[in-house]
Write a structure and sequence with these properties.
elongated; two-stranded antiparallel ribbon; mainly alpha; 415 residues
Length: 415
């Protein structure tokens, strides 16, 4: 983990140096076209203000700000007249407006995410550096013209910028959390098909619209992205409500005294970390987490409760019966069928299990054997290794060992 964190410092340092160089250059040469700088700065600041209600795990909490920043970086004309703001001024306006838009958040104790801020500075600087010198020198117009070729160039440049941002985001997440890079990159690339594509498309259309119609195009093209952001927030709220419902169901076993306090959430958090370690991402990771939360719900149907709630020491037939009871309960809750199938198959022989069921089985057994004690699971891990010949998949056990060696994970909050 400490080796990975050494990557974060240079990335933040590069972003800081670029921001300082841009500010110094803008102060030295003066502000070109202050009206355009003010209009795009106001749009970016407004986009930052709309981060209210954003979840910490959102890929792009301020899509309007990101689209406005990219549009300013790719702006070559305004109402048919060439612009002259250049690379350094682009970065200066983006940084200043972004910081101005975060002041209300800072006042409420929610400062900007430094990783996201560094990525914004570096990606906008990259886009502006690839576009502004070429356009201002006339080389771009000579190469692709002013019509469809210019629009296609903007789209390709935005795609390249988005890919660079995804690579950088995955590297920073890898440095922070130590998870394998491949699944993290796939997660970031999958986000490009959602809000990422909307941001890139809006950035390109804004730049082209201002080139033809002037600054009046900004509010026209900003409204659709704002509506998209509102829709995404509502969808995220529904998803959060679903998770809270599942978490409440998981707590039912604790309230009934069937399982120890916090067991379901510890298993869910560790299962998610092990799933990332083994290459799961996106929806598959969410299904795994939900199944891990509900893996013990079958104990509510038992006449005689399991001693201590630990199912790992039980006979295979009894484990299988509890798993079938749990799957039946899960299917009555309206949770996706994929979750019920994992709960149902968690007690199968591991060679016949799908990967998520193998993960839930190993992590549940670890928490049962360790008794939920942080740092007290070395003996439990050794017992799992001894059981890899018959009960537990060796690769999953070793993945769990790697997660624990990095310090494990903090359990997800109940809601």
């Amino acid at each position: 983990m400490s080796g990975g964190l050494r990557l974060v410092g240079p990335v933040h340092g590069a972003a800081l140096l670029l921001a300082l160089a841009a500010l110094a250059g803008t102060l030295w040469h003066g502000l070109d076209e202050p009206g355009h700088a003010l209009a795009f700065g106001a749009l970016i600041a407004l986009g930052e203000l709309t981060r209210w209600g954003a979840r910490p795990d959102e890929k792009e909490p301020a899509p309007l700000a990101a689209a406005g920043a990219l549009a300013y970086a790719l702006l070559g004309q305004s109402a048919g007249r060439p612009t002259t703001h250049g690379v350094l001024q682009t970065v200066t306006v983006v940084v200043a407006a972004g910081l101005a838009g975060t002041v209300p958040h800072i006042a409420r104790g929610h400062g900007p995410d430094r990783d996201q801020l560094a990525r914004r500075i570096l990606t906008v600087g990259f886009a502006a550096l690839c576009f502004q010198p070429l356009y201002n020198s006339g080389a771009l117009t000579a190469l692709v013209g002013e019509g469809p070729g210019h629009a296609l160039f903007l789209v390709l440049l935005l795609l390249l910028t988005a890919l660079c941002d995804a690579v950088l985001a995955a590297l920073l997440r890898r440095a922070r959390h130590g998870h394998p890079y491949g699944p993290l990159l796939r997660d970031e690339l999958r986000a490009l098909l959602g809000i990422g594509s909307a941001v890139c498309a809006t950035g390109a259309v804004m730049a082209l619209g201002v080139a033809v119609a002037g600054l009046w195009a900004l509010p026209v093209f900003a409204v659709p992205l704002l509506l998209t952001q509102v829709s995404l927030r509502r969808w995220a709220a529904v998803r959060t409500t679903n998770r809270q419902t599942i978490a409440s169901l998981a707590r039912a076993t604790e309230i009934a005294g069937c399982t120890p306090p916090g067991h379901a959430h510890r298993v869910a958090a560790l299962s998610r970390a092990v799933g990332l370690e083994l290459g799961l991402s996106g929806p598959a990771l969410t299904v795994l987490e939900h199944a891990a939360l509900m893996h013990d719900i079958g104990q509510l149907s038992l006449v005689d409760p399991v001693d201590g709630g630990a199912t790992a020491p039980l006979a295979p037939a009894e484990q299988r019966r509890i798993a079938l009871l749990g799957a039946a309960v899960v299917r009555q809750t309206g949770v996706p069928e994929a979750v019920a199938r994992i709960v149902e198959r968690q007690a199968d022989p591991y060679r016949e299990q799908p990967l998520p069921a193998r993960i839930v089985r190993v992590v549940n057994a670890y928490d049962d054997l360790a008794g939920g004690r942080a740092g007290g699971g070395l003996g439990a891990l050794e017992r799992l290794r001894l059981g890899t010949a018959r009960d537990y998949h060796p690769e999953v056990v070793e993945s769990l060992a790697r997660v624990l060696a990095r310090g494990g994970v903090a359990p997800a909050p109940p809601g």
